[in-house]
Amino acid sequence: MKSFITALQFLTRIHLKNQMDLTAEDFGRSTKFFPLVGLILGLIYMLASWCLIAVFGWANLVTTLLVILPVLLTGGLMLDGFMDTVDGVFSGRERERQLEIMKDSRVGSFGVLALVCLCLVNWSALRDVKLVLIMTALFVMPIIGRMAMVMAIAFFPYARKEGMGKIFAEMADRETVLLAAAVTLVFVVPWGQAAIAALLIGLGFAWLVATWLTHKLGGLTGDTYGAIETLTETVVLLVFWVTSWLPGGLHILWR
């Protein structure tokens, strides 16, 4: 329970209790519960979408609020990593300088522009998903995104000699991967073939991005974990967008 609460309070702004005696190992052990945190976020997103649509209908305002909601609930933690990663990787500098740029607390122009583009893509994809698929997409999106992060942590080397993300990488053992994968499969697969497609494509995309970043940086960092999670969620939305507009696409969800 302590590890789960640690994961929940680290990845979100949901506060259940004060944990004053946390160690680095406590954070490392919490990795296995990342998809479970995604489950809680997915339930909140799904409930929020149901309430907003019931009151306002499927309007532009609702789409905007649903894009903002994850930022409020997570404190923009993953988006911060995404912006730092973009600033570093696309700086055109050598590897060590890229890592320094990513560690800088200031956000550069590349990061800001990338965030704006990402939000526009998310808004557009979500706006064009068929109404019957909206809640499903929002439910599985954070689960798959955080499973992608667990995969990146467990299977790719850490780029720095030290850092917050290093303890996650060191303690992401076989049990961590199996438990995270089990939670992901149990809560994603029952939603049907569209959700399964989003899972497979999302994780495949995350693996390719992690491989590319490892080649560029010599490994991954805490910032790149956030970038991979953020981009995977966008890919999940795009899969549901494509499913919505394929002939007979709505039937894929329920078979």
Q: What can you tell me about this protein's structure?
A:
One of its GO terms (molecular function) is cobalamin 5'-phosphate synthase activity. Keywords: Cell membrane, Cobalamin biosynthesis, Magnesium, Membrane, Transferase, Transmembrane, Transmembrane helix. One of its GO terms (biological process) is cobalamin biosynthetic process. It is found in: Cell membrane. With 255 residues, this protein is mostly helical. The C terminus is likely disordered.
Task: Chart the SSEs and their pairings.
Blueprint: H1 2-11, H2 24-29, H3 34-56, H4 60-74, H5 77-89, H6 95-103, H7 109-128, H8 131-155, H9 164-171, H10 174-188, H11 193-217, H12 222-245, H13 249-254
Element string (H = helix, E = strand): HHHHHHHHHHHHH
Which radius of gyration do the C-alpha atoms yield? 18 Å
Q: What is the beta-strand fraction?
A: under 5%
Tally of individual helices: 13
Cα end-to-end separation: 36 Å
> What are the segments in which pLDDT stays under 50 over at least 5 consecutive residues?
250-255
What is the β-strand count?
Answer: 0
Give the overall silhouette: globular
Query: What share of residues is helical?
Result: over 70%
Instruction: Please outline the major beta sheet.
Output: none
Please, what is the average pLDDT?
90
> Which structural category fits the helices and strands?
mainly alpha
Organism: Selenomonas ruminantium
Family: Belongs to the CobS family.
Pathway: Cofactor biosynthesis; adenosylcobalamin biosynthesis; adenosylcobalamin from cob(II)yrinate a,c-diamide: step 7/7
Function: Joins adenosylcobinamide-GDP and alpha-ribazole to generate adenosylcobalamin (Ado-cobalamin). Also synthesizes adenosylcobalamin 5'-phosphate from adenosylcobinamide-GDP and alpha-ribazole 5'-phosphate.
